[in-house]
Amino acid sequence: MPSHVLVTGGAGFIGSHVVDRLLQAGHRVRVVDALDPQVHAATTGGGAHASIAAFPEHLDPTAEAVRGDLADPGVADAAVEGVDRVIHLAAAVGVGQSMYEIAGYTRANDLATAQLLEAIVRRRGAVKRLTVASSMSVYGEGRYEDADGDAVPPEATGRRREDLENDRWEPMDGAGRPLVPRPTAEDKPTDCSSVYALGKLVQEQMCGIVGDAYGIPTTALRFFNVYGPRQALSNPYTGVIAIFASRLLNGRRPRVFEDGQQRRDFVSVHDVADAVVASTLDDALPAGVFNIGSGASVCIRELAEQLASVLGRDDLTPELTGNFRIGDIRHCFADTGKAERELGFAPKVSLVEGMAELAGWLETQEAQDNVEAAGRELAERGLTV
Ligand code: NAD
Ligand code: UD1
């Protein structure tokens, strides 16, 4: 039977792909999105502070689209009216920016989630299932072993500022030997190092607590680094692939922090959207917390080189700045075993295929390179060194 699904943040990058899948499968979709100008500036071409009148072209016009800020109780109430499933993707997503726009991030992420949940609770019994977007950022550093293959406790994996200032990038054991990064599973204790990460943990736990109390199966999906078409290219606080792509498209070399050997797990937005839709619609699947990544890792320098190559700009070699961002982790990539076993999650898009698809889309885009300005803003606040 078709469902009526609310997708918060549905005009955004991940949300718009989720909406496509839901509509294709014959479901009714309502999108509620504040159309944050920092994310949606490109749709008007009016710069970062332009006022946005319209939803982006990438949002399927057959979805019901409502502009509104979920932190407003009236908006949240209207959003949930008549729906039987909720996918909560709305969030402010700039990790560095969250460290100075603290109140704004707490409103957009924590308060908006609280209002949404109150609205769901007021319509007790109507919402059958809830999925919320969480993030690998809740882990802080990923999982490590020492050189002897023994597990290292999370509190021993941090990096001291003094080490970073002296180009000692890898977390070390007591004897000064580099730790060995391993895939991170859901049972790794959380360790938030940004207001954004804390907000994601609050969203995940608040939804879980309320879902348990009212018998609503609730799933938090911890996305790793998501990439693909429709990623906000002009938002300088977005992920590294979009940042590198917008620099390359503007004829500039990607600027790589540290020594470029830090590893991440880049997962295609298509695989992420599949996981979101399955966990929301399939009542046979268990609720809970799951990693959603590709299960593979790549270092950032190699990523910059591969992306330049895909865009036909091998001449724009990565610039290794030796700078670092305060609060950055060194390595984190997903152990996706739990999602595979319990949700049947099977990522289909390889990094090479995904970058080729991204390149095809990028050719149709005009990216503003706002990265310099964002970098200055972080530096002025002492958040990059
Ligand atoms: P995005 O910025 O493209 O989309 C987020 C959307 O939410 C935007 O359209 C924005 O206008 C809207 N929004 C923000 N605050 C709102 C509010 N208070 N009320 C209504 N709408 C609001 O980001 P995305 O990459 O599509 O991220 C979607 C979700 O996935 C977020 O919750 C994010 O934290 C999470 N996530 C993303 C990644 C990634 O790599 N992209 C990784 C981990 C987690
Ligand atoms: C962070 C969040 C993650 C979020 C993502 C996108 C943490 C631990 N994780 O991930 O939840 O989804 O941001 O908002 O907070 N880099 C460069 N040059 C650049 C930009 C980045 O070298 O111009 C490097 C960074 O130093 C980092 C890597 O690329 O090592 C990835 O950075 P980024 O895309 O910002 O994501 P994360 O920090 O992994």
Total domain modules: 2
Low-pLDDT stretches: 43-51
Integer-rounded radius of gyration: 20 Å
Q: Could you name the CATH class of the largest domain?
A: Alpha Beta
Architecture overview:
The chain has 385 residues and is an alpha/beta fold. It folds into two domains: 4-142 and 184-379, NAD(P)-binding Rossmann-like Domain (Rossmann fold); 143-182, no CATH class. It has twelve helices and 15 strands. The chain has helices at 13-24, 37-40, 73-80, 102-122, 161-165, 195-214, 240-249, 269-281, 300-310, 337-343, 351-362, 371-380; strands at 4-8, 28-33, 64-67, 85-88, 129-135, 143-145, 180-182, 218-223, 225-227, 255-256, 263-264, 266-268, 288-292, 298-299, 319-320. The strands form five sheets. A seven-stranded parallel sheet has the order 3-2-1-4-5-8-13, with helices on both faces. A two-stranded antiparallel sheet has the order 6-7. It has a two-stranded parallel sheet with strand order 9-12. The longest helix is centred in the N-terminal third of the chain and has 21 residues, at 102-122. The radius of gyration is 20 Å and the shape is globular. It starts with a strand and ends in a 5-residue tail after the last helix. The model is unreliable at 43-51 (pLDDT under 50). The structure holds nicotinamide-adenine-dinucleotide and uridine-diphosphate-N-acetylglucosamine. Uridine-diphosphate-N-acetylglucosamine binds at residues 93, 95, 135-137, 194, 197, 225, 239-240, 243, 255-257, 262, 264, 300, 325, 328-329. Nicotinamide-adenine-dinucleotide is lined by residues 8-9, 11-15, 32-36, 39, 69-71, 89-93, 108, 112, 133, 135, 200, 223, 225-226, 232, 239. It comes from Phycisphaera mikurensis (strain NBRC 102666 / KCTC 22515 / FYK2301M01). Its EC number is 5.1.3.-. Belongs to the NAD(P)-dependent epimerase/dehydratase family. Keywords: Isomerase. One of its GO terms (molecular function) is isomerase activity.
